[in-house]
Write a structure and sequence with these properties.
Helix content: 10-25%
Largest sheet: 4 strands, antiparallel
Strand order of the largest sheet: 3-4-7-6
Shape: globular
Radius of gyration: 13 Å
Order of helices and strands: HEEEEEHEE
Number of helices: 2
């Protein structure tokens, strides 16, 4: 098994379309006007690195807007500060109304 690390998370962060500038509407799956369902995320094989966007406090019935660039910048920060030491990270109060969280962990 490969270790959860900054290198693995850097690979994962490369998959996020950070150059896409427009705001994305995140919210409940199947609801009109939602671009990405909550929770939503990216994973680099199990136990390597996983990044998820969640509704605040695990509530996936919220609706908010945030760009992929914001997701990527939160992931870069957590990879450098948290994954570097093998720890999970959470960035809260993201999105236009502060209703989104980005979580980074090893996927276990």
């Amino acid at each position: 098994m490969q270790e959860y690390s900054t290198d693995k998370c850097d690979q994962l962060l490369g998959e996020i379309p950070a150059d896409v500038a427009p705001l994305i509407t995140w919210g409940p799956q199947g609801q009109a006007g939602i671009d990405k369902a909550l929770p939503s995320g990216w994973e680099l094989s199990p136990f390597n690195c996983r990044l998820n966007v969640w509704g605040a406090f695990g509530n996936h019935n919220v609706r908010d807007q945030m760009s992929f660039y914001e997701v990527w910048t939160a992931g870069v920060m957590m990879a450098g500060v948290c994954a570097r030491y093998g720890k999970p990270g959470k960035y809260e109060h993201l999105g236009q109304n502060g209703r989104l969280w980005v979580l980074l962990d090893d996927g276990s």
